[in-house]
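1st attempt posting a full record on here, be nice pls
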Amino acid sequence: MTTTKCYLNTWKRFVHEGVLDSARLNKRVIESWYRCKQGEVNPYLTKGHYLLSNEQLQRQKVKYAQLLEVASSHLAHIDPILQQSGMMALVIDPEGVVLSIRGHRGTVYEAEKINFVEGACWTEDKVGTNAIGTALQTGEAVMINGTEHFSVASHRWSCSATPIYDQNKQLLGIIDISCPLEQSHPLMLGTVTSIAYMIEQELNIVNHEQDISIFEQAIDFIEMNPDVPFVVCNDQGFIISASRIIREKNPQYSNMKIEDLLSSGYNIQKQKPILSKKQKKLGTCLLLSEAKVRQHRHFQIVHKEEEPFQFQGVIGTSEVFINTIEKAKLVSKTDSSVYILGETGTGKELIARAIHENSSRKNGPFIAVNCGAIPKDLMESELFGYVEGAFTGAKRQGYKGKFEQANHGTLFLDEIGEMPPAMQVAILRVLQERKVIPIGGTKEVPIDIRIIAATHRDLFQLVKEGTFRQDLYYRLHVFPIHVPTLKERREDIPAFIHYFCQTNNCHLDLPVQLLEQLQSYDWPGNIRELMNILENLKISAGANSNSIVELLSLFKGNHHSNSDIETPVQVTKYNTREKIQREMMIEALQKTCGNASAAAKLLGIPRSTFYRRAKKLGLS
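the predicted structure (as tokens):
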């Protein structure tokens, strides 16, 4: 008890004065406390405030289903120990989200009081120093007791956690054993480390068996192309098998990232996804060709840290859009043609620009052409250019078309489905020969470009209808990427609001009713329509005190919402306590996508209290 009191005094002095007696704490705890202080983590946090919705949690469980299945079978063996010792065991994903909890019922009940539950995000930046978050941060096993925790929410707890890695040293998740401080045992850390080791071993066996299955399914595809170099990758992008020519040039090919191989002078010629019986992707077989401009008899792989993928839009947290970004990231390392399909206003050009800016062509031009906006009689000169005197009104020096303008860079053909048949033939010839002849000219101009095509229409349906050439379709449809609608990624709306405020240097306090409307609306105009609404909000908020009411009415009229809209109370001055309450309520509403009942539960207050405060603080 004396040690506990000593730690408490150390914590109090650090929180209040920023002074730390390093002799009283181990190095890992000291480093973590300083990280929390620098990150402005609230040391007086009484419970976790970052919870996933049920839908989001289920998606995480599906994403890490293999980890959950293997970990659960091993943790089941220690259930009697957990019951007798008053402990609980948790499985956490690499993002710090609690996926499952099992153990002593009373301990689990106590944990619920601080929101230490399934779906909670228990990272250092969210709840301060703790075994889970600190293990994620350091990549090492760690035990945190009592007031070694940075926030008071965990001061009555003892927690031990250790990371789980795969054979490629990629983090798979965290295993944690926690209990009330008075029931802590020094063997907790050893127990959780032993369990994590057994889970790692079983996962390695499972993954090895899966790799064999992937290769077996790729054999037919490989045999159809016997003279082409190939690699077989798992769903993480690691090479598990390769043809002889690849193996000879890269003796350490096994478990090399496909991006590293492609950056050494190879292009993807064909690819075949390997699917499970449930149509879940297990891996990919890639047929390769050596890039002519980068051929070498021998080359060496230089291992370096992967640069972050640059994307100028909003990624958010929706799995459907993260998958889109992952596809864009993968294809940006190649020079293959890309086909982007998505509705108007979803950000197809942003995806195309991201692919260009993360590719080897990033220092070259990015030329965007809207095929549906160019008059048919001007399209040929716009794309191929013309020489001096080619026709009446031609510029004296001639004109370089879009193909020449994009030389050594990327040409983005937006709304390719609007391309007239005559131009389809001309473009197909350019893609085959990589040369253009300007109007009125006789000399061929060689071009080195990458083509990214986009459309909101179903090109294959246009092929069946006879309005789009089949041979051009297959030239463009090499690597398809689907850009989801805003309706498909509604959980990203708070991120779009934050992005809008950040880029426009403004602050929008949206009433609860408007948040709920934004979340429930179908958004036929997608992101473009949302940005218009936010721009309207920004302008109206600065006009007069009644503008928010008017905008809500406008929104209701334009978008056929049936919900009743109450006049928000305009509060201009709040004391310190009210400001904190208001910020916490806004944050809770954003986390729960505007659901007031869920926000009240997240804050640990009755729903009636939440509504009363919302009205008082201008949030209703």
